[in-house]
Amino acid sequence: MCSKRKLWLLCLSLAVHLAFASAAGAKDVVVFAAASLKNALDEASAAYQREAENKVLIAYAASSTLAKQIENGAPADLFISADLDWMDYLQQRGLIQTPLTLLGNRLVLIAPAQSTVTVEIRPGFALADLLGTERLAMADPGAVPAGRYGKAALEALGVWSSVAAKVAPAEDVRAALLLVSRGETPLGIVYATDAAADRGVRIIATFPDDSHPPIVYPVGKIAASDNPAAGAFLAYLRSDRARPFFERQGFMFRP
Fold it and tell me: Cβ–Cβ contacts within 10 Å for residue 19, how many?
Protein backbone atom coordinates (compact mmCIF):
# COMPACT_ATOMS: atom_id res chain seq x y z
CA MET A 1 0.00 0.00 0.00
CA CYS A 2 1.36 3.44 -0.93
CA SER A 3 2.20 5.78 1.92
CA LYS A 4 0.58 9.22 2.12
CA ARG A 5 3.93 10.72 1.15
CA LYS A 6 4.19 8.62 -2.01
CA LEU A 7 0.62 9.45 -2.92
CA TRP A 8 1.31 13.15 -2.42
CA LEU A 9 4.39 13.00 -4.63
CA LEU A 10 2.46 11.17 -7.33
CA CYS A 11 -0.32 13.77 -7.26
CA LEU A 12 2.21 16.60 -7.35
CA SER A 13 4.02 15.04 -10.29
CA LEU A 14 0.79 14.63 -12.24
CA ALA A 15 -0.26 18.19 -11.41
CA VAL A 16 3.02 19.61 -12.61
CA HIS A 17 2.85 17.61 -15.84
CA LEU A 18 -0.66 18.82 -16.60
CA ALA A 19 -0.24 22.41 -15.50
CA PHE A 20 2.97 23.07 -17.37
CA ALA A 21 1.99 21.12 -20.46
CA SER A 22 -1.14 23.25 -20.81
CA ALA A 23 0.35 26.59 -19.74
CA ALA A 24 3.67 26.60 -21.56
CA GLY A 25 3.79 28.11 -25.04
CA ALA A 26 6.29 27.27 -27.76
CA LYS A 27 8.84 29.85 -26.56
CA ASP A 28 8.09 29.71 -22.84
CA VAL A 29 10.90 28.55 -20.56
CA VAL A 30 9.90 25.99 -17.93
CA VAL A 31 12.15 25.96 -14.88
CA PHE A 32 12.15 23.44 -12.04
CA ALA A 33 13.80 25.09 -9.03
CA ALA A 34 14.54 24.31 -5.38
CA ALA A 35 11.94 25.83 -3.04
CA SER A 36 14.51 28.02 -1.29
CA LEU A 37 15.02 30.02 -4.50
CA LYS A 38 11.46 31.32 -4.76
CA ASN A 39 11.84 34.94 -3.67
CA ALA A 40 15.05 35.63 -5.58
CA LEU A 41 14.14 33.69 -8.70
CA ASP A 42 10.66 35.20 -8.90
CA GLU A 43 12.21 38.68 -8.90
CA ALA A 44 14.92 37.75 -11.39
CA SER A 45 12.49 36.12 -13.81
CA ALA A 46 10.07 39.06 -13.58
CA ALA A 47 12.85 41.46 -14.56
CA TYR A 48 13.89 39.19 -17.43
CA GLN A 49 10.37 38.92 -18.78
CA ARG A 50 9.98 42.70 -18.93
CA GLU A 51 12.56 42.66 -21.74
CA ALA A 52 12.26 39.18 -23.27
CA GLU A 53 9.63 37.92 -25.69
CA ASN A 54 9.06 34.62 -23.89
CA LYS A 55 7.52 33.81 -20.52
CA VAL A 56 9.28 31.97 -17.73
CA LEU A 57 7.20 29.40 -15.82
CA ILE A 58 8.72 28.15 -12.57
CA ALA A 59 7.76 25.13 -10.46
CA TYR A 60 9.16 25.13 -6.91
CA ALA A 61 9.56 22.06 -4.71
CA ALA A 62 12.26 20.00 -2.99
CA SER A 63 15.16 19.22 -5.34
CA SER A 64 14.55 15.52 -4.78
CA THR A 65 10.92 15.79 -5.88
CA LEU A 66 11.78 17.82 -8.96
CA ALA A 67 14.59 15.48 -9.99
CA LYS A 68 12.22 12.52 -9.83
CA GLN A 69 9.67 14.40 -11.91
CA ILE A 70 12.31 15.15 -14.56
CA GLU A 71 13.28 11.48 -14.52
CA ASN A 72 9.62 10.64 -15.16
CA GLY A 73 9.47 12.94 -18.18
CA ALA A 74 8.16 16.21 -16.74
CA PRO A 75 8.31 18.98 -19.40
CA ALA A 76 11.11 21.16 -18.03
CA ASP A 77 13.86 23.14 -19.77
CA LEU A 78 16.09 24.03 -16.81
CA PHE A 79 16.70 22.53 -13.37
CA ILE A 80 18.20 24.43 -10.43
CA SER A 81 19.02 22.13 -7.53
CA ALA A 82 19.91 23.01 -3.94
CA ASP A 83 22.74 20.48 -3.97
CA LEU A 84 25.05 18.62 -6.33
CA ASP A 85 23.71 15.15 -5.51
CA TRP A 86 20.35 15.49 -7.26
CA MET A 87 21.94 17.22 -10.24
CA ASP A 88 24.46 14.37 -10.44
CA TYR A 89 21.57 11.91 -10.20
CA LEU A 90 20.09 13.29 -13.41
CA GLN A 91 23.42 13.72 -15.17
CA GLN A 92 24.36 10.09 -14.53
CA ARG A 93 21.14 9.08 -16.26
CA GLY A 94 21.82 11.27 -19.26
CA LEU A 95 18.89 13.53 -18.46
CA ILE A 96 20.75 16.82 -18.08
CA GLN A 97 23.56 18.63 -19.82
CA THR A 98 26.74 19.65 -18.02
CA PRO A 99 25.59 21.62 -14.94
CA LEU A 100 27.08 24.95 -13.92
CA THR A 101 27.52 26.42 -10.44
CA LEU A 102 25.16 29.31 -9.80
CA LEU A 103 24.84 30.10 -6.08
CA GLY A 104 25.95 29.39 -2.55
CA ASN A 105 24.10 29.63 0.78
CA ARG A 106 24.49 29.24 4.56
CA LEU A 107 22.74 27.01 7.08
CA VAL A 108 21.13 28.55 10.17
CA LEU A 109 19.19 27.66 13.29
CA ILE A 110 15.97 29.65 13.63
CA ALA A 111 13.27 30.27 16.21
CA PRO A 112 9.94 32.14 16.11
CA ALA A 113 10.47 35.91 15.97
CA GLN A 114 9.18 36.40 19.53
CA SER A 115 11.41 33.67 21.00
CA THR A 116 14.11 34.70 23.47
CA VAL A 117 16.19 31.53 22.99
CA THR A 118 19.94 32.03 22.55
CA VAL A 119 22.57 29.42 21.76
CA GLU A 120 26.13 29.09 20.55
CA ILE A 121 26.58 26.36 17.96
CA ARG A 122 29.65 24.33 18.89
CA PRO A 123 30.52 20.65 19.30
CA GLY A 124 28.11 19.01 21.73
CA PHE A 125 25.87 22.08 22.11
CA ALA A 126 22.67 21.41 24.07
CA LEU A 127 20.17 21.36 21.22
CA ALA A 128 18.16 18.52 22.77
CA ASP A 129 17.80 20.48 26.01
CA LEU A 130 16.59 23.54 24.12
CA LEU A 131 13.92 21.45 22.41
CA GLY A 132 12.74 19.70 25.56
CA THR A 133 9.67 17.73 24.51
CA GLU A 134 9.18 19.81 21.34
CA ARG A 135 10.25 19.10 17.75
CA LEU A 136 13.01 20.36 15.46
CA ALA A 137 11.75 21.48 12.02
CA MET A 138 13.93 20.36 9.11
CA ALA A 139 13.47 19.46 5.49
CA ASP A 140 13.42 15.68 5.18
CA PRO A 141 17.01 14.67 6.07
CA GLY A 142 16.64 11.47 4.07
CA ALA A 143 16.16 13.16 0.70
CA VAL A 144 15.90 16.96 0.66
CA PRO A 145 19.19 18.92 0.38
CA ALA A 146 18.50 21.33 3.28
CA GLY A 147 17.72 18.35 5.50
CA ARG A 148 20.83 16.52 4.38
CA TYR A 149 23.01 19.54 5.13
CA GLY A 150 21.32 19.92 8.51
CA LYS A 151 21.84 16.28 9.45
CA ALA A 152 25.48 16.42 8.32
CA ALA A 153 26.08 19.49 10.46
CA LEU A 154 24.47 17.97 13.54
CA GLU A 155 26.43 14.75 13.05
CA ALA A 156 29.69 16.68 12.72
CA LEU A 157 28.88 18.57 15.91
CA GLY A 158 28.04 15.34 17.74
CA VAL A 159 24.40 16.12 18.53
CA TRP A 160 22.41 14.29 15.84
CA SER A 161 21.79 11.18 17.94
CA SER A 162 20.28 13.29 20.73
CA VAL A 163 17.72 14.99 18.45
CA ALA A 164 17.07 12.51 15.62
CA ALA A 165 13.86 11.27 17.26
CA LYS A 166 12.66 14.86 17.71
CA VAL A 167 12.91 15.89 14.06
CA ALA A 168 9.74 17.05 12.32
CA PRO A 169 10.64 16.28 8.66
CA ALA A 170 9.08 18.63 6.12
CA GLU A 171 8.57 18.18 2.36
CA ASP A 172 10.97 21.03 1.59
CA VAL A 173 12.85 23.80 3.35
CA ARG A 174 10.03 26.34 2.98
CA ALA A 175 7.67 23.95 4.72
CA ALA A 176 10.16 23.65 7.59
CA LEU A 177 10.39 27.43 7.73
CA LEU A 178 6.62 27.68 7.99
CA LEU A 179 6.50 25.29 10.95
CA VAL A 180 8.72 27.65 12.92
CA SER A 181 7.08 30.84 11.65
CA ARG A 182 3.69 29.55 12.81
CA GLY A 183 5.11 28.56 16.19
CA GLU A 184 4.38 24.89 15.64
CA THR A 185 8.00 24.06 16.48
CA PRO A 186 10.36 26.12 18.67
CA LEU A 187 13.43 25.62 16.47
CA GLY A 188 14.27 24.80 12.89
CA ILE A 189 17.16 24.41 10.48
CA VAL A 190 16.88 26.26 7.17
CA TYR A 191 19.01 28.27 4.76
CA ALA A 192 19.93 31.82 5.73
CA THR A 193 18.03 33.08 2.69
CA ASP A 194 14.81 31.40 3.84
CA ALA A 195 15.08 32.97 7.27
CA ALA A 196 15.58 36.38 5.67
CA ALA A 197 12.38 35.95 3.67
CA ASP A 198 10.08 35.39 6.67
CA ARG A 199 9.59 38.02 9.38
CA GLY A 200 7.97 35.39 11.55
CA VAL A 201 11.36 33.87 12.40
CA ARG A 202 14.76 35.03 13.58
CA ILE A 203 18.19 33.52 13.20
CA ILE A 204 19.62 32.52 16.56
CA ALA A 205 22.86 30.97 15.25
CA THR A 206 24.70 30.10 12.04
CA PHE A 207 26.25 26.68 11.51
CA PRO A 208 30.02 26.68 10.87
CA ASP A 209 30.80 26.24 7.18
CA ASP A 210 33.07 23.33 7.96
CA SER A 211 30.30 21.39 9.74
CA HIS A 212 28.60 20.41 6.48
CA PRO A 213 29.38 20.08 2.76
CA PRO A 214 29.46 23.37 0.85
CA ILE A 215 25.94 24.50 -0.04
CA VAL A 216 25.99 24.77 -3.81
CA TYR A 217 23.14 25.46 -6.24
CA PRO A 218 23.95 24.09 -9.69
CA VAL A 219 21.85 24.84 -12.77
CA GLY A 220 21.57 22.65 -15.86
CA LYS A 221 19.62 22.41 -19.09
CA ILE A 222 17.42 19.34 -19.47
CA ALA A 223 18.91 17.11 -22.17
CA ALA A 224 15.54 16.50 -23.84
CA SER A 225 14.77 20.22 -24.14
CA ASP A 226 15.12 21.77 -27.58
CA ASN A 227 13.87 25.18 -26.48
CA PRO A 228 16.36 27.85 -27.66
CA ALA A 229 14.88 30.35 -25.21
CA ALA A 230 16.14 28.23 -22.31
CA GLY A 231 19.75 29.00 -23.15
CA ALA A 232 19.06 32.72 -23.16
CA PHE A 233 17.42 32.58 -19.74
CA LEU A 234 20.26 30.45 -18.37
CA ALA A 235 22.80 33.00 -19.60
CA TYR A 236 20.79 35.76 -17.94
CA LEU A 237 20.71 33.90 -14.59
CA ARG A 238 24.51 33.67 -14.64
CA SER A 239 25.03 37.31 -15.62
CA ASP A 240 25.64 40.44 -13.56
CA ARG A 241 22.11 41.56 -14.47
CA ALA A 242 20.65 38.79 -12.30
CA ARG A 243 23.25 39.01 -9.51
CA PRO A 244 21.47 41.70 -7.42
CA PHE A 245 18.26 39.69 -7.14
CA PHE A 246 20.12 36.75 -5.60
CA GLU A 247 22.51 38.72 -3.43
CA ARG A 248 19.68 40.84 -2.04
CA GLN A 249 18.12 37.64 -0.68
CA GLY A 250 21.42 36.56 0.87
CA PHE A 251 22.69 34.10 -1.73
CA MET A 252 26.37 34.06 -2.69
CA PHE A 253 26.61 34.51 -6.46
CA ARG A 254 29.05 31.94 -7.87
CA PRO A 255 28.66 31.61 -11.67
Answer: 13
Evaluated on CA atoms 65, 242, 176, 218, the torsion sign reads positive
Name the pTM for this structure.
Answer: 0.85
**How far is residue 38 from each of residues 1, 35, 154, measured CA to CA in Å?**
34, 6, 26
Q: Which sign, positive or negative, has the C-alpha torsion 68, 19, 58, 109?
A: negative
Q: Would you report the helix, strand and coil content of the chain in percent, each value rounded to 5?
A: 45, 20, 35
* HEC readout, 111-167: EECCCCCCCCCCCCCCHHHHHCCCCEEEECCCCCHHHHHHHHHHHHCCCHHHHHHHE
Query: Please, which residues bridge with residue 61 across strands?
Result: 34
| pLDDT per residue as tens digits for the range 130-154 | 999 999 999 999 999 999 999 999 9
